[in-house]
Amino acid sequence: MTGLTTKGAATRDRIVRAATELILERGVAGMTLDEIRVGTRTSKSQLFHYFPGGKSELVGAIAGFQNARVMAAQEPWLDRLDTWESWQGWRDAVVAYYRNLTHKYCSVSALVNDVAPTDPRLAAEVAAYADRWREQLAAGLRRMREAGRLRPDADPDRLALAVFAALQGGLLVMQSHESIEPLEAVLDGTLLMLRSYAVHSSSTGAA
């Protein structure tokens, strides 16, 4: 939302942060705007001033905020996935982030599953978040191949898709089991899969 004063931007940010915690606990379908208003200590007029599109617009802001948190948690590794050590660091950062969460709806896709199918704009926003995340993984794999750490026949885009799909599946199983172990297992498996494409000199773990 543009055109806000500094105070207005701070108020909107406060609403988004508070609403994020509420919705991550109960899911989008489990929260009404009135409950969000009470939980964020916001008047009805104030809520619609900052989110004139109602619940869908607020959920979109929450999805963006949560995506930014998830991406930040993967740094500095996500921007430097050019060695096997950096991939291990990325794996550990992802696990550490989700291990410290107590929310059921921890992934962006799980957060908006109840709204996105009926809101094409929101669905497109969430798809764009996923595309950017997957592209960063692919960029790292392209650097790995260019540096001679992956075989020339390795397809970075396809491998990144496999890693990303496995990660999202691991998050869903983690949520249903309320345990970090499924996420740890799937990420360890994806690293083994990537290493199967390593050239001989890198397969032993060399940078």
UniProtKB/TrEMBL annotation:
Domain of life of the organism in this record?
Bacteria
Q: Does the keyword Transcription regulation apply?
A: yes
The residue stretches assigned to a coiled coil in this entry are none
- Write down the InterPro entries for this protein, in alphabetical order: Homeodomain-like_sf (IPR009057), HTH_TetR (IPR001647), Tet_transcr_reg_TetR-rel_C_sf (IPR036271), TetR_C (IPR011075)
Gene3D superfamilies reported in the protein's UniProt record? Tetracycline Repressor, domain 2
Q: Does the keyword Transcription regulation apply?
A: yes
A Pfam family for this UniProt protein? TetR_N
> Which residues does UniProt assign to DNA binding?
32-51
> SUPFAM superfamilies, alphabetically?
Homeodomain-like, Tetracyclin repressor-like, C-terminal domain
Where is each HTH tetR-type domain found? 9-69
Which controlled-vocabulary keywords does the entry list?
DNA-binding, Transcription, Transcription regulation
Which PANTHER family does this one have?
HTH-TYPE TRANSCRIPTIONAL REPRESSOR NEMR, TRANSCRIPTIONAL REGULATORY PROTEIN
Q: What is this protein called?
A: TetR/AcrR family transcriptional regulator
Organism equals Paractinoplanes ovalisporus
